[in-house]
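One-letter codes give the sequence; each number marks local geometry. A record appears below:


***
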Amino acid sequence: MSANTRNRRTLTALLAAGALALTLGACSSSGGSSSSSAASSAASSSAAMSGSTASTAAMGDQPFGTACAAVPKDGAGSFTGMAKDPVATAASNNPLLSTLVAAVKQAGLVDTLNSAQNITVFAPTNDAFAKIPKADLEALLADKAKLTKVLTYHVAPDRLAPNALAGTHKTLEGGDLTVTGSEPDFTVNGSSKVLCGNVQTANATVYIVDTVLMPTS
């Protein structure tokens, strides 16, 4: 083999090796860029989903409804203050519920409600009691057995979050009450509207309603 032939073959081999190296380098660079882009996209998507979930959870933890604006902004009757006390005590600090508190005291249920664990209370406002004719309300307040029956009908033995509120629930009175709708528009027994819901106390979740609920039996 001549020297010129050997030189040409050597040069061809070197050029081929260089081309292969350039090709592999380009592939590696492209693959790295693609992987980095995919990882960045996945991280962004995960962060967005996490943020959305956190936002949804935060919304679900808050009281809702038109009457919530009437709850004191601070002090024992505020949402923060009520969360520190058991339910009967918490209600006594809320100006919307003074008639209910008087009825609970009249029935001797303060200790019963305060010592119960993880309950849901449908709490009629003062205006809800005002819907009852005066003579009928006075008669109800004077009849401890009947008053106890009515008040315990407003209590479910489970702590119901808004996403579990719709449905039929057994009450401490023994009868059932039915909630329809979804947040923020819930109706109890077809007529009583939830005005301010998901109010937390130390031992209960409270839904403030616009009508006194009456057991059927």
User: Anything to note?
Assistant: Helices lie at 3-60, 79-82, 87-92, 98-107, 110-115, 126-130, 134-142, 144-152. DSSP finds eight helices and seven strands in the chain.
